[in-house]
């Protein structure tokens, strides 16, 4: 298969993939009972009316983890080409990749020392 | 157009069909065939999961519907189909309905790049490993969307926790994935398997396999990382508002994800379909892959049913202060050692055609390095354990002292 066909395959797969779980849900929609009432469709929390807004600002700790993850994730994408070229790489390219990993580790230790990794 | 159109497509064209349509149809048949494998296995997986869990807990498990309870899943499906589907009035309707679809689709999509045998696969993407990483992170998105759209405080809290967990464990997962890519010199899963002809990658970098195993257990939200369903704290987590088939889709996605990870580990570290007589017939190759993936899948079930749940702060500390530094150190040490050996001429530069004998010195040296790392880690863990025990003893003693006073 050539490249165009490969990506056409992925494209068709991506369109079809949500159809598989949607199918049983649609079939269920044909069979299932429909008797909604106000109590049934209220928010399921403690049995009493939910107090306050759910969609509020969340704790900053999640955001910090997200930021650290972003740093690592973006840098890992850069490491994949390095890994693919590893076997044919000259020593220079190899050391360059190493410096990159060390910078990455540096960021991790900085976050560690700043206590950004502690769950508070 | 001619070289694009082979196999079924060319048959259709000869039968008088439009070239574009024929191509689309042949690709569609391919998609249906490839996705058929996970869709059929998932029905069996639910039964296996329940049976194994039951046996570990000294129960019998499903045994009424069909022989040894094999039709239990079918009965459950019929039950789920006839369940009323409740959408909370406060929910964001579009996102609420989209989340289970995205959750299941993100797992099925991984199977597009999984080679079943040397000749049977959906596509052999040149960036297969990266594609896996990209698609797998859709699962976290689905959970976030489900928790947010439910407009329920428990669901949202559960979703936040789970997403921070999934996102964190993706870092060691991808670092461990880097090693098979590095060893094979290719991101294509087919090439990675073929590069293991001489030696399985688990022998070259056992630590990478262990890291991949642990973080994929976390990615699927299984014990000891099952914050996803911390029912004692969050009622049920992100899927609290879901009912009927939509709830079932989240669960099917989870079961399938665990098995998919088993198959992936078999491909990445255990030589995929390599085994006695695999070249005789694609069926034997397929059976080998299934057996290896199934065995790894079984160990994950075993782990799930025997270990207690960790606290969220413990999970986060374990990931960021242990797994991530370890996975980075692993990549650094293995790549450095391999490069030195390649420069000295001890290790083959291209593993694709390397024989078992050629791989032996490399394997030996890498195993020794891994052994030292594991010994060091064990020593470190014992030291930490001793400290923790001493601290708890001191805390208990002071508590007893306070009670006596």
Describe the 3D structure:
Chain A has 120 residues and is an all-alpha fold. Chain A has a single domain (3-113), classed as NADH:ubiquinone/plastoquinone oxidoreductase, chain 3 (Methane Monooxygenase Hydroxylase, Chain G, domain 1), CATH 1.20.58. Chain A is 63% helix and 0% strand. Chain A has four helices and no strands. The longest helix of chain A has 26 residues, at 60-85. Chain A starts with a helix and ends in a 7-residue tail after the last helix. The mean pLDDT of chain A is 83. Chain B has 405 residues and is mostly helical. Chain B folds into two domains: 1-82, no CATH class; 86-404, no CATH class. The termini of chain B are far apart. The model of chain B has no long low-confidence stretch (mean pLDDT 85).
By DSSP (H or I, 4+ residues per run), the number of helices of chain B equals 14
Q: Number of helical segments of chain A?
A: 4
Strand content of chain A: under 5%
Radius of gyration of chain A, in angstroms, nearest whole number = 25 Å
Q: Which structural class do the helices and strands of chain A define?
A: mainly alpha
Largest interface: A-B, 71 and 94 residues
Total discrete domains of chain B: 2
Number of strands of chain A: 0
Instruction: Please state the oligomeric state of the protein chains shown.
Output: heterodimer
- The whole-number mean of residue pLDDT values of chain A reads 83
Instruction: Name the helicity range of chain B.
Output: over 70%
Task: Give the low-confidence spans of chain A.
Answer: none
Indicate the low-confidence ranges of chain B by residue numbers.
none
Q: What would you call the shape of chain A? A: flat
The run of helices and strands of chain B is HHHHHHHHHHHHHH
CATH superfamily of chain A: NADH:ubiquinone/plastoquinone oxidoreductase, chain 3
What overall geometry of chain B do the principal axes of the alpha carbons give? globular
